[in-house]
Design a protein that fits this description.
The structure holds two protein chains of two kinds.
Chain A: H1 8-28, H2 33-63, H3 69-99, H4 104-108, H5 114-148, H6 155-181, H7 183-214, H8 220-223, H9 225-230, H10 240-245, H11 249-270, H12 274-282, H13 284-287, H14 303-317, H15 319-327, H16 333-347, H17 353-374, H18 379-383, H19 389-418, H20 420-443, H21 456-459, H22 461-482, H23 488-505
Helix pairs in contact in A: 1-5, 2-5, 3-5, 3-6, 3-7, 5-6, 6-7, 6-11, 7-15, 7-16, 14-19, 17-19, 17-20, 17-22, 19-20, 20-22, 22-23
Chain B: E1 6-14, E2 18-27, E3 32-36, H1 43-50, E4 58-63, E5 66-67, H2 72-78, E6 79-82, H3 94-104, H4 109-122, H5 138-150, E7 156-160, H6 168-183, E8 187-191, H7 195-201, E9 204-209, E10 212-217, H8 219-226, H9 232-242
Parallel strand pairs in B: 3-8, 3-9, 6-7, 7-8
Antiparallel strand pairs in B: 1-2, 1-4, 4-5, 9-10
Classes of the chains: A mainly alpha, B alpha/beta.
Chain lengths: ~500, ~250
């Protein structure tokens, strides 16, 4: 035993052990041998990221990076992008501190201090946020340290401070939501907020990568002369965080101290109410009796219609699930930006919409198919109904594809007004993308609770990866087909190979 | 000769070890049959195979003469399955859930609505008929699931631990409903760990141990077999202890 039971250290040890085992299980899926494969694959990806970072950083470093106003504006801009992902992750994790039940009931019913538990759990959130952001930023920091000087390594000390500030803000936002909308709606709103902030990061960071590949002068937002001219002078306190990241110790110390103090203050302010709010969050599902507006009747329809209507009604009635499903579409904006920059000028601005719609179809179909096939809460009931298993499967697939079609058709119609050939290429590839994602979900279906939607990738990483690759390759096919490139054939073949590989790996091949 | 409600012949199923081994079991139409056995004896596996939720490795299962493997849809039309973990949709109300089940079994709409109202009243769920099931206790969910099993008037009802988690009042309601169904000619096969329930409700009792039927009969026949005036609990323990272990 490393510390007295119930103490801060004791709880920290307990949390660390659980987190480590969770991570190990997620990475290895229960097979330790896979850890080696994961490490080798991870290192390969990391090497690629270092290479990309070097390609971006080296030319800028050769020109010299000095803490002048344009550079400080650029560093602040990039820093804000990283901060947005920290805030997104922190917001989601802090919400989980209040809402995740697992062992909370056990601990809350014990005489252990809820303040200590809150301190440990929010501290763990800050630590994991710092680790993730350090991992994401490390290729850039390492290359800056290599090409522009070791003082950039200071960023590794400043990042945890930023994550502390992100967690403090996340705590304040969560508490604000508790007061403003109550425990019933806090989780939903916080998670939507986290996804929007997170998507903002992805969109932003893609913009940095894409726009910086050509030249920094195209980094229009942060380096535009108008914006730089309007900003305060280089010695203004506003630039302290940027100076801290760049290795200025005099700036780093107040930044680190004030951000960590913000976290400590938040912990101090919000820990007394933790026990009460966690209990309130727990009773959300139990105390509230929601009356539902009666919808159309299931009886008097064919069995296939009954199953389709059931899927639609459950989706319609679950705003959290609906938001999680539709939120995936936000993440499709970066590829749109990528194609806008690379192809937009030559093939017309609308070309950018083609791969976005194709990918959106695949991602949306994949999420909905998981809900309909694996997330069937009354699996036994449906399986014992007097309807052939194939008919059940077909009805559920129809329910999924109908939703995708309803969302996609107006957009395709708008696209057709500009170019019917582009709309045709998009339509065909979107159907193929949605069909591929659905097929992968059929092959890899495993009965799970609908509430597990956000952890569905844990059930099968092969399904998640194949679904993403299939959507990307069909999106590429759509884009290439739209500009009349023969290379569309190659991406289509790659998509089919992805599907073939997924099928050969899957437990259900029917 | 009347067709039995359930006829199982030489049924076998293995997972990492044999769970059911050469089981023969016949349940007459209109009978209340209790299947007893210690944890891991294979009761749930047997019932899941009967409900068509698990494929047997060998043997045959006939529901009122319809082979579940050859004509699964035909067999399923005749039966209802209620598991120990009530599987009900959080985002449907009991009324909608029953409407959905009736739709799956193609019950005529007006008959389904009447039956749903009757069942909800009978099981004390009428005041909650338009509330989402997500906020219900396990006992309430169990009653919704039971109502779902009854809405399409099955000829055979299979229940796996239906009284688990129910309070005394709810358990009484469920038992009354089940006994009424048997009086109407419905066949019920039920597993339970509450031996008193089996003793009071079942017409015949089967004891499973190690994937085999080690004893079967009325309570009197089981007493005669052990040779003394024992309670079902004593008989059960004696039969299970003397049964050969699963290989």
């Amino acid at each position: 035993m490393i510390a007295a039971p119930g103490s801060l250290l004791w709880f920290a040890h307990h949390e660390l052990r659980l987190a480590w085992r969770d991570w190990l299980a997620m990475m290895t899926g229960g097979h330790r041998v896979r850890l080696l494969g994961f490490l080798v694959g991870g290192l390969a990806v990391y090497a690629l990221l270092l290479f990309i970072a070097a390609a971006i950083i080296a030319p800028a470093a050769a020109r010299g990076i000095t803490p002048d106003k344009p550079t400080l504006a650029m560093v602040t801009g990039v820093g804000l992008l990283f901060f947005s992902v920290m805030l997104s992750q922190a917001l989601e994790s802090v919400t989980r501190v209040y809402y995740a039940r697992s062992d909370l009931d056990l601990i809350l019913s014990s005489p252990a201090s809820t303040r200590t538990l809150f301190a440990v759990r929010t501290g763990a959130v800050a630590l994991s946020t710092a680790l993730l952001s350090a991992l994401l930023a490390s290729p850039i920091i390492n290359m800056l340290a290599l090409f522009a000087g070791p003082h950039w390594l200071w960023a590794y000390l400043v990042l945890p401070a930023f994550s502390a500030l992100a967690v403090a803000i996340a705590m304040a936002l969560t508490m604000g939501l508790f007061r403003l909308v109550g425990p019933k709606r806090t989780r939903l709103i916080a998670q939507i907020l986290a996804a929007i902030v997170g998507a903002g990061f992805v969109i932003g960071i893609q913009a940095v990568a894409i726009l910086s590949f050509d030249t920094y002068s195209r980094f229009a937002l942060f380096s535009s002369p108008d914006l730089v001219a309007s900003l305060p002078a280089a010695d203004h306190w506003l630039w302290l965080p940027a100076r801290a990241v760049m290795g200025d110790a005099v700036s780093a110390v107040p930044v680190i101290v004030s951000f960590v103090a913000a976290l400590a203050l938040a912990m101090l302010l919000f820990s007394p109410s933790y026990g009460r709010l966690a209990v309130a969050a727990a009773s959300v599902g139990q105390s509230s009796r929601h009356r539902a507006k009666s919808g159309t009747h299931f009886t008097g329809r064919t069995q296939a219609q009954v199953l389709r209507h059931k899927e639609w009604r459950l989706l319609q009635r679950d705003p959290w699930l609906l938001s999680q499903t539709l939120m995936q579409m936000l993440y499709l904006l970066p590829p749109a930006l990528l194609l806008w920059v690379n192809y937009g000028e030559g093939a017309g601005a609308f070309i950018v919409i083609v791969p976005v719609l194709v990918m959106a179809s695949g991602q949306l179909a994949g999420g909905l198919a998981w809900l309909a096939l694996s997330g069937e809460d009354a699996y036994d009931l449906v399986a014992t109904a007097p309807i052939a298993a194939r008919s059940i499967l077909r009805a559920k697939i129809e329910a999924v594809l109908t939703v995708v079609a309803v969302i996609l058709t107006p957009l395709l119609a708008l696209l057709a007004l500009n170019s019917w050939t582009m709309a045709l290429a998009t339509g065909v590839c979107a159907i193929l993308s949605a069909a591929s994602a659905t097929a992968i979900q059929v092959w890899f279906r495993v009965p799970m609770r609908r509430a597990m939607f956000r952890r569905r990738q844990v059930a099968s990483r092969a399904a998640t990866i194949s679904e993403a690759f299939a959507s990307i390759t069909w999106a590429g096919t759509g884009a290439l087909l739209s500009v009349g490139s023969w290379a569309a054939g190659i991406t289509a073949i790659i998509a089919l190979v992805v599907l073939g590989s997924a099928r050969s790996l899957s437990p259900h091949r029917s | 000769m009347t067709v039995p409600a359930l006829a199982i012949k030489n049924l076998a199923k293995s997972f990492d070890r044999p769970v059911v081994q050469g089981l023969d079991l016949t349940v007459a139409a209109g009978e209340f049959y209790a299947l007893l056995g210690p944890n891991g004896a294979g009761k749930t596996t047997i019932l899941r195979m009967v409900a068509g939720l698990l494929a047997p490795d060998a043997g045959s299962i006939e529901i009122f003469g319809t082979d579940i493997r050859k004509d699964p849809v035909g067999a399923k039309r005749l039966l209802a399955w209620v598991s120990d973990e009530p599987m009900v949709y959080d985002r449907l109300t009991p009324l909608e859930y029953l409407d959905f089940v009736a739709g799956l079994w193609q019950v005529e709409p007006s008959r389904a609505r009447d039956a749903a109202n009757d069942l909800l009243t009978l099981l004390g769920l009428k005041p909650h008929a338009n509330e989402l099931c997500g906020s219900f206790s396990k006992g309430m969910l169990q009653k919704v699931a039971l109502a779902g099993a009854l809405i399409h008037n099955p000829r055979l009802i299979i229940l796996d631990e239906p009284l688990t988690g129910l309070d005394a009042g709810s358990a009484r309601q469920v038992k009354d409903v089940l006994l009424e169904k048997v009086r109407q000619g419905v066949t019920i096969i039920m597993t339970t760990h509450i031996l008193e329930v089996a003793e009071r409700m079942a017409q015949r009792i089967g004891v499973i141990a190690g994937g085999n039927l080690v004893a079967e009969g009325t309570l009197a026949e089981l007493r005669a077999r052990t040779g003394r005036e024992s309670t079902l609990e004593e008989i059960f323990l004696e039969l299970v202890e003397t049964a050969p272990a699963t290989s």
